[in-house]
Design a protein that fits this description.
Order of helices and strands: HHHHHEHHHE
Shape: rod-shaped
Number of helices: 8
Number of domains: 2
CATH architecture of the largest domain: Orthogonal Bundle
Oligomer: single chain
Length: 169
């Protein structure tokens, strides 16, 4: 305590102020030590959100490139979560995050395995139509021909022509 009092007098601080300063110095040294050991010996786990970010970015880019039609990205993202919880769905969140979409274009969507969120990325297909496609697929089993998608209410020849090159079995 005498040492603390001498240091306080030398620098013109009260004993309490010196204690606070020493406490902050201690915390700074402790934090620097943790940062050093974490950087050199990997104390904490590193996690990359790049796959999740690429899916979100792709969906936003697709929503922004639709002609006169805006998607609600939050609905699509909640659809991804809903699809991943659906026990009958064969598409997992990991599979969806692997879908790489170039800016202004979309990947080929497998209409027999894709969930609502992926279906909604097709040109002219909104959330309701995507849900109708998935419901129709569940009722018939699997699509045997691409043209069968026109049996879904809301998809006619024009819409089918738009999405023909972007869907697969």
């Amino acid at each position: 305590m005498k040492l603390l009092k001498k240091i306080s007098e030398k620098f013109g601080f009260t004993v309490t102020e010196t204690q606070v300063i020493l406490f902050f110095v201690f915390l700074t040294v402790l934090g620097a030590g943790y940062k050093y050991f974490d950087a050199n010996f990997s104390i904490s786990k590193k996690f990359s959100y790049s796959k999740d970010d690429s899916l979100y970015t792709a969906l936003v880019n697709e929503a922004n490139t639709r002609n006169g039609y805006r998607l609600n990205v939050q609905d699509i993202m909640s659809g991804v979560q809903r699809d991943s919880l659906d026990s009958t769905s064969t598409t997992s969140n990991a599979d969806l995050s692997e879908t790489k979409l170039a800016k202004g274009s979309i990947a080929v969507v497998n209409i027999n395995t894709s969930g609502v969120a992926e279906m909604a990325t097709l040109p002219g297909i909104g959330m309701k139509t995507a849900e109708a496609i998935v419901d129709y697929r569940k009722s018939i089993g699997k699509f045997s021909r691409l043209e069968q998608i026109m049996d879904v209410k809301g998809i006619g020849q024009k819409k089918f022509d738009k999405i023909r090159t972007k869907i697969a079995l």
